[in-house]
Amino acid sequence: MPKPKIIAILGPTASGKTALAIELAKQINGEVISADSRQVYCGLDIGSGKVTQEEMQGIPHHLIDIIDPVDTYSGADFVRDAKAAVTDITARGKVPIIAGGTFFYVDLLRGKQSTAPVPQNLVLQAELETLSTEELISRLTTADPRRAATIDIKNRRRLIRALEIINSLGAVPEVATIESDYEWLIFGIDVPTEALNKRIEQRLHERLEHGMEAEVAHLLASGVPKERLINFGLEYRYLVQGHYHNLTYEQMTTELFAKIRQFAKRQRTWLKRDKEIAWKSFPVNVGDIAEETKAFLDFSKVV
Protein backbone atom coordinates (compact mmCIF):
# COMPACT_ATOMS: atom_id res chain seq x y z
CA MET A 1 0.00 0.00 0.00
CA PRO A 2 1.34 3.49 -0.83
CA LYS A 3 2.05 5.71 2.15
CA PRO A 4 -0.15 8.75 2.78
CA LYS A 5 1.53 11.94 1.54
CA ILE A 6 2.15 14.95 3.76
CA ILE A 7 3.27 18.46 2.91
CA ALA A 8 5.25 20.40 5.51
CA ILE A 9 6.07 24.10 5.53
CA LEU A 10 8.91 25.05 7.85
CA GLY A 11 10.90 28.17 8.58
CA PRO A 12 12.05 30.38 11.45
CA THR A 13 9.61 32.33 13.56
CA ALA A 14 7.88 35.21 11.74
CA SER A 15 8.67 33.75 8.30
CA GLY A 16 4.99 33.36 7.34
CA LYS A 17 4.58 29.58 7.57
CA THR A 18 0.90 29.57 8.48
CA ALA A 19 -0.12 32.12 5.86
CA LEU A 20 1.70 30.16 3.16
CA ALA A 21 0.14 26.89 4.34
CA ILE A 22 -3.33 28.44 4.07
CA GLU A 23 -2.70 29.74 0.54
CA LEU A 24 -1.36 26.34 -0.51
CA ALA A 25 -4.31 24.55 1.09
CA LYS A 26 -6.70 26.65 -0.99
CA GLN A 27 -5.02 25.41 -4.16
CA ILE A 28 -4.66 21.71 -3.36
CA ASN A 29 -7.77 20.99 -1.25
CA GLY A 30 -5.70 20.82 1.91
CA GLU A 31 -6.14 21.17 5.65
CA VAL A 32 -3.54 22.48 8.09
CA ILE A 33 -2.14 20.58 11.06
CA SER A 34 -0.42 22.91 13.53
CA ALA A 35 2.96 21.72 14.80
CA ASP A 36 3.30 24.32 17.53
CA SER A 37 3.91 23.43 21.17
CA ARG A 38 2.09 26.55 22.43
CA GLN A 39 -0.86 26.84 20.05
CA VAL A 40 -2.28 23.56 21.36
CA TYR A 41 -3.16 25.45 24.56
CA CYS A 42 -6.40 27.36 25.01
CA GLY A 43 -5.86 31.03 25.83
CA LEU A 44 -2.30 31.29 24.52
CA ASP A 45 -3.45 33.27 21.51
CA ILE A 46 -1.57 36.51 20.92
CA GLY A 47 1.73 35.38 22.39
CA SER A 48 1.84 32.19 20.34
CA GLY A 49 0.77 33.93 17.13
CA LYS A 50 -2.25 31.65 16.93
CA VAL A 51 -4.09 31.88 13.62
CA THR A 52 -7.51 33.55 13.87
CA GLN A 53 -10.73 32.31 12.31
CA GLU A 54 -10.58 35.18 9.83
CA GLU A 55 -6.99 34.34 8.87
CA MET A 56 -7.93 30.70 8.30
CA GLN A 57 -10.11 31.78 5.34
CA GLY A 58 -12.27 28.71 5.76
CA ILE A 59 -9.35 26.25 5.79
CA PRO A 60 -9.76 23.73 8.65
CA HIS A 61 -6.93 23.75 11.20
CA HIS A 62 -6.11 20.87 13.54
CA LEU A 63 -4.34 20.66 16.94
CA ILE A 64 -5.15 24.21 18.00
CA ASP A 65 -6.90 24.97 21.32
CA ILE A 66 -7.10 21.34 22.43
CA ILE A 67 -5.72 21.47 25.98
CA ASP A 68 -5.85 23.60 29.12
CA PRO A 69 -2.64 25.59 29.78
CA VAL A 70 -2.26 24.12 33.27
CA ASP A 71 -1.93 20.66 31.72
CA THR A 72 1.09 19.29 29.86
CA TYR A 73 1.25 18.30 26.22
CA SER A 74 4.19 16.17 25.11
CA GLY A 75 5.83 15.24 21.85
CA ALA A 76 4.30 11.78 22.15
CA ASP A 77 0.87 13.43 22.51
CA PHE A 78 1.52 15.39 19.33
CA VAL A 79 2.48 12.29 17.34
CA ARG A 80 -0.68 10.50 18.49
CA ASP A 81 -2.94 13.45 17.66
CA ALA A 82 -1.19 14.33 14.40
CA LYS A 83 -1.49 10.76 13.14
CA ALA A 84 -5.20 10.80 13.97
CA ALA A 85 -5.57 14.11 12.10
CA VAL A 86 -3.70 12.78 9.05
CA THR A 87 -5.95 9.71 8.97
CA ASP A 88 -9.06 11.89 9.20
CA ILE A 89 -7.91 14.35 6.54
CA THR A 90 -6.79 11.75 4.01
CA ALA A 91 -9.94 9.66 4.57
CA ARG A 92 -11.94 12.65 3.34
CA GLY A 93 -9.79 12.97 0.22
CA LYS A 94 -7.93 16.05 1.40
CA VAL A 95 -4.23 16.82 1.78
CA PRO A 96 -2.57 17.26 5.21
CA ILE A 97 -0.24 20.26 5.45
CA ILE A 98 1.97 20.51 8.54
CA ALA A 99 2.92 24.06 9.54
CA GLY A 100 4.52 25.26 12.74
CA GLY A 101 7.67 26.20 14.55
CA THR A 102 8.14 23.21 16.86
CA PHE A 103 10.44 21.30 14.56
CA PHE A 104 11.01 18.60 17.18
CA TYR A 105 7.34 17.66 16.78
CA VAL A 106 7.70 17.43 13.01
CA ASP A 107 10.84 15.32 13.33
CA LEU A 108 9.04 12.97 15.70
CA LEU A 109 6.28 12.49 13.14
CA ARG A 110 8.92 11.92 10.44
CA GLY A 111 10.70 9.29 12.54
CA LYS A 112 13.82 11.46 12.81
CA GLN A 113 13.53 11.77 16.58
CA SER A 114 12.14 9.57 19.33
CA THR A 115 10.66 10.07 22.76
CA ALA A 116 11.55 8.11 25.87
CA PRO A 117 8.73 6.00 27.38
CA VAL A 118 8.88 7.85 30.70
CA PRO A 119 5.68 9.21 32.28
CA GLN A 120 5.61 12.69 33.71
CA ASN A 121 6.84 13.14 37.26
CA LEU A 122 4.94 16.21 38.44
CA VAL A 123 6.68 16.34 41.81
CA LEU A 124 10.11 16.33 40.17
CA GLN A 125 8.96 18.87 37.57
CA ALA A 126 7.85 21.25 40.32
CA GLU A 127 11.21 20.88 42.06
CA LEU A 128 13.18 21.49 38.84
CA GLU A 129 11.08 24.54 37.97
CA THR A 130 12.52 26.28 41.03
CA LEU A 131 16.05 26.00 39.62
CA SER A 132 17.67 28.54 37.33
CA THR A 133 18.49 27.56 33.77
CA GLU A 134 22.19 27.52 34.69
CA GLU A 135 21.48 25.09 37.55
CA LEU A 136 19.48 22.84 35.23
CA ILE A 137 22.36 22.80 32.72
CA SER A 138 24.82 21.97 35.49
CA ARG A 139 22.71 19.07 36.72
CA LEU A 140 22.29 17.71 33.21
CA THR A 141 26.01 18.05 32.43
CA THR A 142 26.85 16.06 35.55
CA ALA A 143 24.19 13.39 35.03
CA ASP A 144 24.42 12.89 31.25
CA PRO A 145 27.26 14.75 29.48
CA ARG A 146 26.30 13.24 26.10
CA ARG A 147 22.78 14.69 26.21
CA ALA A 148 24.06 17.98 27.65
CA ALA A 149 26.31 18.38 24.61
CA THR A 150 23.40 18.16 22.15
CA ILE A 151 20.46 19.77 23.94
CA ASP A 152 19.18 23.31 23.35
CA ILE A 153 20.44 24.82 26.60
CA LYS A 154 18.06 27.78 26.26
CA ASN A 155 15.00 25.51 26.30
CA ARG A 156 14.01 24.94 29.92
CA ARG A 157 11.29 22.48 28.99
CA ARG A 158 13.81 20.27 27.22
CA LEU A 159 16.26 20.53 30.11
CA ILE A 160 13.60 19.58 32.65
CA ARG A 161 12.32 16.71 30.50
CA ALA A 162 15.87 15.38 30.07
CA LEU A 163 16.41 15.39 33.84
CA GLU A 164 13.03 13.71 34.29
CA ILE A 165 14.07 10.92 31.90
CA ILE A 166 17.47 10.58 33.60
CA ASN A 167 15.75 10.28 36.97
CA SER A 168 13.81 7.31 35.61
CA LEU A 169 16.26 5.63 33.21
CA GLY A 170 19.67 6.85 34.34
CA ALA A 171 20.41 8.53 30.99
CA VAL A 172 18.56 9.92 28.00
CA PRO A 173 18.42 7.15 25.36
CA GLU A 174 20.15 7.84 22.07
CA VAL A 175 17.86 8.92 19.25
CA ALA A 176 16.62 5.96 17.25
CA THR A 177 15.40 6.92 13.79
CA ILE A 178 12.62 4.86 12.24
CA GLU A 179 10.99 4.77 8.85
CA SER A 180 8.16 7.27 8.59
CA ASP A 181 4.60 6.13 8.08
CA TYR A 182 4.26 8.89 5.48
CA GLU A 183 5.81 10.22 2.30
CA TRP A 184 6.95 13.82 2.75
CA LEU A 185 7.42 16.95 0.68
CA ILE A 186 9.00 19.62 2.87
CA PHE A 187 9.35 23.29 1.96
CA GLY A 188 11.50 25.71 3.92
CA ILE A 189 11.04 29.50 3.86
CA ASP A 190 14.42 31.19 3.49
CA VAL A 191 14.19 34.78 4.76
CA PRO A 192 17.25 37.08 4.67
CA THR A 193 18.36 37.93 8.21
CA GLU A 194 17.70 41.67 7.95
CA ALA A 195 14.19 41.14 6.58
CA LEU A 196 13.44 38.51 9.21
CA ASN A 197 14.58 40.78 12.03
CA LYS A 198 12.29 43.54 10.77
CA ARG A 199 9.36 41.10 10.69
CA ILE A 200 10.17 39.91 14.21
CA GLU A 201 10.30 43.47 15.54
CA GLN A 202 7.09 44.48 13.79
CA ARG A 203 5.26 41.40 15.03
CA LEU A 204 6.44 41.95 18.60
CA HIS A 205 5.08 45.50 18.66
CA GLU A 206 1.81 44.35 17.07
CA ARG A 207 1.35 41.67 19.72
CA LEU A 208 1.97 44.13 22.53
CA GLU A 209 -0.31 46.73 20.95
CA HIS A 210 -3.10 44.19 20.41
CA GLY A 211 -3.42 43.06 23.99
CA MET A 212 -0.77 40.55 24.88
CA GLU A 213 -0.23 42.11 28.30
CA ALA A 214 -3.96 41.76 28.95
CA GLU A 215 -3.80 38.14 27.75
CA VAL A 216 -1.07 37.34 30.27
CA ALA A 217 -2.94 39.13 33.05
CA HIS A 218 -6.09 37.15 32.21
CA LEU A 219 -4.20 33.83 32.23
CA LEU A 220 -2.69 34.65 35.63
CA ALA A 221 -6.07 35.72 37.00
CA SER A 222 -7.71 32.53 35.70
CA GLY A 223 -5.35 30.41 37.77
CA VAL A 224 -2.44 29.63 35.46
CA PRO A 225 0.63 29.77 37.75
CA LYS A 226 3.27 32.32 36.85
CA GLU A 227 5.88 29.53 36.75
CA ARG A 228 3.78 27.75 34.15
CA LEU A 229 3.55 30.86 31.96
CA ILE A 230 7.28 31.47 32.29
CA ASN A 231 7.78 27.91 31.05
CA PHE A 232 6.02 28.83 27.79
CA GLY A 233 9.03 30.99 26.98
CA LEU A 234 9.81 34.15 25.08
CA GLU A 235 6.96 36.70 25.22
CA TYR A 236 5.17 34.99 28.12
CA ARG A 237 8.32 34.79 30.21
CA TYR A 238 9.15 38.45 29.74
CA LEU A 239 5.63 39.70 30.36
CA VAL A 240 5.38 37.72 33.57
CA GLN A 241 8.74 39.14 34.62
CA GLY A 242 7.35 42.56 33.88
CA HIS A 243 4.47 41.84 36.26
CA TYR A 244 6.57 40.38 39.06
CA HIS A 245 10.08 41.76 38.72
CA ASN A 246 9.47 45.42 37.84
CA LEU A 247 10.99 45.14 34.38
CA THR A 248 10.30 48.37 32.49
CA TYR A 249 8.52 48.28 29.14
CA GLU A 250 11.66 49.47 27.36
CA GLN A 251 13.84 46.86 29.07
CA MET A 252 11.33 44.13 28.30
CA THR A 253 10.93 44.94 24.60
CA THR A 254 14.67 45.41 24.05
CA GLU A 255 15.59 42.15 25.73
CA LEU A 256 12.69 40.27 24.20
CA PHE A 257 13.53 41.39 20.67
CA ALA A 258 17.10 40.16 21.19
CA LYS A 259 15.92 36.81 22.57
CA ILE A 260 13.52 36.22 19.67
CA ARG A 261 16.29 36.99 17.17
CA GLN A 262 18.51 34.46 18.93
CA PHE A 263 15.68 31.93 18.90
CA ALA A 264 15.19 32.44 15.15
CA LYS A 265 18.92 31.91 14.60
CA ARG A 266 18.80 28.60 16.47
CA GLN A 267 15.76 27.55 14.43
CA ARG A 268 17.59 28.26 11.18
CA THR A 269 20.60 26.28 12.37
CA TRP A 270 18.33 23.32 13.17
CA LEU A 271 16.61 23.47 9.79
CA LYS A 272 19.73 23.98 7.68
CA ARG A 273 21.02 20.59 8.82
CA ASP A 274 18.02 18.91 7.18
CA LYS A 275 18.90 17.92 3.63
CA GLU A 276 15.31 16.93 2.79
CA ILE A 277 14.01 20.50 2.92
CA ALA A 278 13.38 22.25 -0.40
CA TRP A 279 14.25 25.87 0.35
CA LYS A 280 12.23 28.70 -1.18
CA SER A 281 13.25 32.34 -1.09
CA PHE A 282 11.00 34.76 0.76
CA PRO A 283 8.47 35.95 -0.29
CA VAL A 284 7.46 32.52 -1.55
CA ASN A 285 5.38 32.29 -4.72
CA VAL A 286 2.55 29.97 -3.71
CA GLY A 287 1.89 29.12 -7.34
CA ASP A 288 5.36 27.63 -7.69
CA ILE A 289 5.11 25.39 -4.65
CA ALA A 290 1.54 24.46 -5.60
CA GLU A 291 2.83 23.09 -8.92
CA GLU A 292 5.56 21.12 -7.15
CA THR A 293 3.03 19.84 -4.65
CA LYS A 294 0.59 18.72 -7.35
CA ALA A 295 3.38 16.83 -9.09
CA PHE A 296 4.31 15.19 -5.75
CA LEU A 297 0.68 14.25 -5.14
CA ASP A 298 0.33 13.15 -8.78
CA PHE A 299 -2.83 15.14 -9.38
CA SER A 300 -2.96 13.70 -12.90
CA LYS A 301 -4.26 10.47 -11.40
CA VAL A 302 -6.89 12.31 -9.41
CA VAL A 303 -8.32 14.50 -12.18
Key structural traits:
6 strands, 2 domains, Histone, subunit A, 303 residues, alpha/beta
Strand order of the largest sheet: 3-2-4-1-5-6
If you consult CATH, what is the topology of the largest domain? Rossmann fold
**CATH level-1 class of the largest domain:** Alpha Beta
Helix/strand structural class? alpha/beta
Q: Tell me the count of domains.
A: 2
Report the major sheet. 6 strands, parallel
Query: What is the helical fraction, as a range of percent?
Result: 40-55%
Q: Kindly report the name of the CATH homologous superfamily of the largest domain.
A: P-loop containing nucleotide triphosphate hydrolases
| Secondary-structure element order, N to C | EHEHEHEHHHHHEHHHHHEH
State mean pLDDT (0 to 100 scale). Answer: 90
Describe the protein.
With 303 residues, this protein is an alpha/beta fold. The chain is built from 14 helices and six strands. Strands 3-2-4-1-5-6 form a six-stranded parallel β-sheet, with helices on both faces. Helix 2 links the parallel strand 2 and strand 3 (61-62). The longest helix is centred in the last third of the chain and has 24 residues, at 249-272. The model has no long low-confidence stretch (mean pLDDT 90).
